[in-house]
Amino acid sequence: MIRRGQENRLISRERAIEELDERVVHITRVSKVVKGGRRFGFRALVVVGDHRGSVGIGVGKAREVPEAIRKGMEKAKKSMVHVTVVGGTIPHPVVAKFRAAQVLLKPASPGTGVIAGGGVRAVVEAAGIQDILSKSLGSPNVLNVVKATLKGLVGMKDIKEEALRRGKTVEELSPPWGAVHEQ
Predict the structure, then answer these.
(1) CB within 8 A of 40, min separation 6: which ones?
(2) Rounded to whole angstroms, how far apart are CA atoms 64 and 138?
């Protein structure tokens, strides 16, 4: 028996899941050598986001592509994290590294758009960031680039907390175009 409060929470959770932006970033064919020859499988890299600051990545592996994508979607939904978005961009520049991949993320003024390549673009757009400059440095491995991007976004500092910590006002730390005031 479901109570009213639980029922409302279940309905809102279902709506939140329906509104997610699901993107398949990369599909790779992998092989395993066995006695009779090679067994082929597929690895799907999937990014899921709600365009309001929550994003997750997942990797699914299976013998067929649709099954790998489904598994990746499930893992991405379970691993969703919240990232700091200030007025459609990020609060400060960051260089994030995951293994050999490095990603440079810089805030951009309104109207710039998403200047990013494949893996970085998928993560940033799914998170709901509309204006950003980025450059992928180091390894071009898509999986590591995506993980480095997510690591950089998660490591962002909240502009209000940082202003309080430094003893300054939010206006002193905000970018010149005043993206903080648009919230």
Answers:
(1) 29, 30, 31, 63
(2) 31
Task: Please give the structure tokens belonging to residue 75.
Answer: 């893992």
Return the number of other C-beta atoms located less than 10 Å from residue 79's C-beta: 14
Which two tokens mark 16? Answer: 């939140």
91: left (phi over 0), alpha (psi -120 to 50) or beta: alpha
Sign of the alpha-carbon dihedral angle for 33, 34, 39, 43: negative
The angle formed by the CA atoms of residues 67, 15 and 127, to the nearest 5 degrees, is: 70
Phi, psi of 173 (to 5 degrees): -95, -15
- pTM equals 0.84
Across 68-130, where does the E strand assignment appear?
81-82, 94-98, 101-107, 114-115
Q: Distance between CA 54 and CA 31 in Å, rounded? A: 34
Distance of alpha carbon 159 from alpha carbon 113, whole angstroms: 21
**pLDDT tens-digit profile of 108-142?**
999 999 999 989 999 999 999 999 999 999 999 99
- Strand order across the beta sheet in which 101-107 lies: 94-98, 101-107, 132-138, 114-115
